[in-house]
Amino acid sequence: MTNQADKTQRIRASLARRYRAERRFRSYGLLAICFGLLCVGVLFVDIIGKGHGAFQQTYIQLDVTYDKQILGITDTGDAQQWALADFDGIIKQALYQRFPAVSGRTDKRTLTRLTSSAAPYLVQNRLQGQPHLLDSTETLWLLADDDIDTYYKSLDDAAGPFIGRVDQRQRLWIDDLQSSKQIKLKWNTQFFVNGDSREPEQAGIGGAVVGSLLTLVVTLLLSLPVGVAAAVYLEEFAPRNRWTDFIEVNINNLAAVPSIIFGLLGLAIFINFFGVPRSVPLVGGLVLSLMTLPTIIITSRAAIKAVPPSIRQAAIGMGASPMQVTMHHVLPLAMPGMLTGGIIGMAQALGETAPLLMIGMVAFIADVPGGFTDPATVLPVQIFLWADSPERAFIEKTSAAIMVLLAFLIVMNSAAVWLRKRLERRW
Amino acid sequence: MVISEQIIAGQPQTTVGLPFVDDPKISVRMGNIFYGDKQAISDVSIDVGKNQVVAMIGPSGCGKSTFLRALNRMNDTIDGCRTSGDYLLEGEDIYRGKMDVVALRARVGMVFQKPNPFPKTIYDNVAYGPKIHGLAERRVEMEEIVETSLRKAGLWDEVKDRLHQPGTGLSGGQQQRLCIARAIAVSPEVILMDEPCSALDPIATARIEELIAELSENYTIVIVTHSMQQAARVSRRTAYFHLGQLIEVNDTQTIFTAPEHELTEAYITGRFG
After folding, report:
1. Is B117–A318 a contact, with Cβ atoms under 8 angstroms apart?
2. % of chain A at pLDDT higher than 70
3. What is the pLDDT of residues A351-371, one digit of tens each?
4. CA distance A55 to A187
5. What's the Cα-to-Cα distance from A32 to each of A39, A44, B177, rounded to whole Å?
6. Which chain A residue has its CA at the smallest distance from B119's CA?
């Protein structure tokens, strides 16, 4: 009897200690998750805080006269006249008219630096599209220079506006424009459409996004079929011997190789030996598909292994040949898993920078690439290049480009998760 | 020494009863099956007559499923499984002869313990066999085959309005009948059934047993069963296996009323299971 009471007492005494340990253990887990979320939160707040400004660009409103004499265009059909036309002149004219008090060569030069060096081209495009506007006056919103843009966006900053290279007279003019509501922020379509540029106000991720897209298409077309075929062969048809074990070990190792090695491999084999042109989406895709192949093979094998043996047995019992069992039963059932693995592989490839640096996609490419053999760059490399640039306006552009890249990655990974949930089958 | 220990001690037993028939459909002589070093079936010789139902009974692990699978070479899919002996289907050796294994499985169909319809529509499930073996050239022919098979399996009335719904949406008993329909769609000569009712409730079981009785008019059936009562109900001849050896084969009536071997008697009276 005493033994029983004694035992119960001991158990009760240890209970408090055990529950305390239980709660401690759970709180460790909770702390770990909170820490992770905190880091992610800080990352997002920092990037969005720095980058959201890049989605808007400063424009100055001016009355522009398409003065035939300044432009030197008498015949709108003459291509040479268009090529030699002085659009910069009509913008200067508009600025002098807006600020008639400005005199002296230096002051006037300072005045003309309010607008971007790209503004004349934008005005030229407009007139070429509507040549009947020649000799008339229009109120246009012209792109401001990047120094003005940075200053204007930082006017409400807590630490005070960022002055940079904006001198006192320009600040007074900007004040004047502000009071007459002729300077404002507009949606920055250039950011999404243009290629890279030395001028921050004109720089855009359009070229990098198209380059990324073309590279990913090449990667997908090469790695998915080859990876799936290799996985099917290794899983279904290959004999189990030392060779196949060796191959399996190697595939698993390749999945862990640092990605820059693949860049070196691409440089040595594709560019030096096969002579594929440098810095094009084709060679970028080749290198990235080498890198993604082990991942796709491993996930595809797992998907094939997950097909229940009862389905295979039923098919074999019906007299299906091994190829028919694979094509009619195993592959359709393993396809969702393979697709998920493919999407995740592509998301990884999208964010790769190091191997592409090795094969030359680090050049300054101003044009949006048109095909697989046009020089191109990819989004992560573009971010890398902009992070190096001295102009302050590139800081927000870099952060905005990071936001776009993160958005793509989140969308792709969410698509993979959704697809996996949706196509989950209950046997 | 207890009777069952006689075999554990390694003494081979000769088969008693009437293992052989005239003009058999399937004929096995000195069949041995090994999983690696472990011997699962030792020196089994038995005949299965045409359009007969033969039940194979015995305690768990006695090798009856292994032996059943050897009859349509399903053991080929298992790594390390070796088969020796003569297995003849209508006089042709199915292992060493020129018979193609894929064609063999169209002649000897199989129904498994757990119903395993393909994750396709009911129609596609039944049509799969004829499709891959090229038994139907036109859509009309295929539809006929599907309907006939489903009728023979006693499933037509229940599914005729939902042929294009997934086969996995049926109840357990219906799924098993679907698997039977699938097996008979290729007009096999023999149907092998590996404990087809063990995963089903009694009512579904009764329906399948009725089905077996009907099917036996046109097909040769070999059924492995854990239930002696089921063997008594459906089969004409029964074979009793014990630890990989064939102990006795006889008419079902004889086995259950007057077994010749003491091991058979011990099993059917329930002295061991």
Report:
1. no
2. 99
3. 889 999 988 888 888 888 888
4. 6
5. 11, 19, 53
6. A427
Residue from B208, B68, B140 nearest B130 by CA: B140
Contact A314 B104 (CB under 8 A): no
Verify whether the Cβ–Cβ distance A317 to B79 is below 8 Å: no
ipTM of the complex: 0.88
- On whether any CB of chain B is under 8 Å from the CB of A241, the answer is no
DSSP string, B5-49: HHHHTT-----EE----SSEEEEEEEEEEEETTEEEEEEEEEEEE
Dihedral class, residue A20 (left if φ above 0, else alpha if ψ from -120 to 50, else beta): alpha
Note whether A380 and A352 are within 8 A (CB): yes
Helix (H, G, I), strand (E, B) or coil at B166: strand
What is the Cα B211 distance to its own chain's centre?
14
Q: Average per-residue pLDDT in chain B? A: 89
Q: Is B118 on the interface with A (CB under 8 A)?
A: yes
DSSP category for residue A58: E
Q: pLDDT tens digits, residue range A209-262?
A: 999 999 999 999 999 999 999 999 999 888 889 999 999 999 999 999 999 999
Euclidean distance between CA atoms A76 and A80, whole angstroms: 10
Do the Cβ atoms of B72 and A311 come within 8 Å? Answer: no
Q: Contact at 8 Å (CB) between A286 and A270?
A: yes
Q: Which residue has the tokens 């036109």?
A: B138
Q: Does the pTM exceed 0.90?
A: no
Percent of chain A at pLDDT > 90 equals: 47
* pLDDT value for A427: 44
Confidence of residue B130 (pLDDT cuts 50, 70, 90): very high
Helix A146-153 and helix A393-422, axial crossing angle in degrees, nearest 10: 70
**Residue pLDDT, tens place only, A186-206:** 998 889 988 888 888 888 999
